[in-house]
């Protein structure tokens, strides 16, 4: 049985492992869960039938080490884990702002896959961007595809730069969608509707819209199908265009990218 060490058990790691466990309850992987406080690690271990680890020394001889702690803790983590991580093991880094160059410098004897997943992995509907180094073997790649590929669609990136540019959409995107839902729900609520029902209306509208997307190849075609020149939808879209909605979204994604760059400089 392959041994997977989870170094950090926050929302993103939990989404991935819970999503995987939901459809692979008898898999050939054993998850060892560790966090400094132990609280989240113990809870995740219980939920997926994993092993709670209270001491770092218990994490030797693992096949995979998943870096799921906060990027701000990276330098301390290198000191803590450098002598624990087995030579030849594979490191999966979920850390925003920590580039492949830094990971290879600090863990020169390991295959490394830098991954940027998202929380819909919990529902096996995630998106994961990734890059890997030359030390990742075919067997290591198979483990990655079995676990991450079961909870998300996998998209290889050319380099760190491309990954950092796109993750503002793929990784931060769910939060942007939730923000859009909040705004639309508040508009309905301000018209005198119940708050819970307002949110439900918007969520159901999103679900229905996405069901149409799954059956069509052209987003523009779908938009055209509900838009008549001079109609209410036409005027709504015209208003967004006049207020540079695309520029607003581009600025948000650019801000996420710039933060990734600044984190790279600060932390690695």
Structural commentary:
Helix content is 53%, strand content 15%. The chain is α/β, with parallel strands linked by helices and 268 residues long. It has an eight-stranded mixed beta sheet with strand order 3-2-1-4-5-6-7-8, with helices on both faces. The protein has two domains: 158 residues, NAD(P)-binding Rossmann-like Domain (Rossmann fold); 91 residues, ProC C-terminal domain-like (ProC C-terminal domain-like fold, Orthogonal Bundle), CATH 1.10.3730.10. It is elongated and about 65 Å long.
Strand content: 5-15%
What is the overall silhouette? elongated
Biggest β-sheet: count, sense, barrel? Answer: 8 strands, mixed
Question: What is the name of the CATH architecture of the largest domain?
Answer: 3-Layer(aba) Sandwich
Assign the CATH topology of the largest domain. Rossmann fold
Which value, in Å, is the CA radius of gyration?
Answer: 21 Å
Mean pLDDT: 95
**Element-by-element helix/strand order:** EHEHEEHEHEEHEHHHHHH
Q: What percent of the residues sit in helical stretches (DSSP H or I)?
A: 40-55%
The structural domain count equals: 2
Order of strands, main sheet, comes to 3-2-1-4-5-6-7-8
Structural class: alpha/beta
- Tell how many strands the DSSP assignment holds: 8
């Amino acid at each position: 049985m392959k041994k997977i060490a989870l170094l950090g058990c926050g929302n993103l790691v939990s989404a991935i492992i819970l999503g995987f466990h939901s459809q692979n309850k008898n898999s050939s992987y054993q998850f060892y869960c560790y966090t400094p406080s132990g609280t989240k690690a113990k809870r995740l271990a219980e939920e997926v039938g994993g092993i709670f680890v209270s001491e770092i020394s218990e994490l030797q001889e693992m096949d995979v080490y998943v870096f799921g702690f906060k990027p701000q803790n990276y330098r301390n983590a290198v000191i803590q884990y450098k002598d624990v991580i087995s030579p030849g093991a594979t490191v999966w880094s979920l850390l925003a702002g920590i580039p492949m160059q830094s990971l290879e410098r600090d863990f020169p004897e390991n295959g490394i896959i830098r991954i940027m997943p998202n929380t819909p992995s919990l529902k096996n509907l995630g998106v994961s961007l990734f890059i890997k180094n030359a030390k990742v073997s075919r067997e290591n790649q198979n483990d990655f595809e079995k676990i991450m590929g079961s909870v998300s669609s996998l998209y290889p990136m050319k380099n760190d730069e491309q990954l950092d540019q796109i993750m503002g959409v793929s990784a931060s995107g769910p939060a942007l969608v939730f923000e859009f839902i909040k705004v639309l729900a508040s508009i309905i609520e301000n018209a005198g509707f119940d708050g819970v029902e307002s949110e439900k209306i918007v969520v159901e509208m999103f679900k229905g819209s996405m069901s149409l997307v799954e059956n069509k190849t052209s987003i523009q075609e779908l938009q055209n199908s509900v838009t008549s020149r001079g109609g209410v939808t036409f005027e709504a879209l015209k208003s967004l265009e006049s207020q540079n909605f695309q520029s607003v979204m581009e600025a948000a994604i650019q801000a996420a990218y710039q933060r990734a760059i600044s984190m790279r400089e600060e932390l690695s």
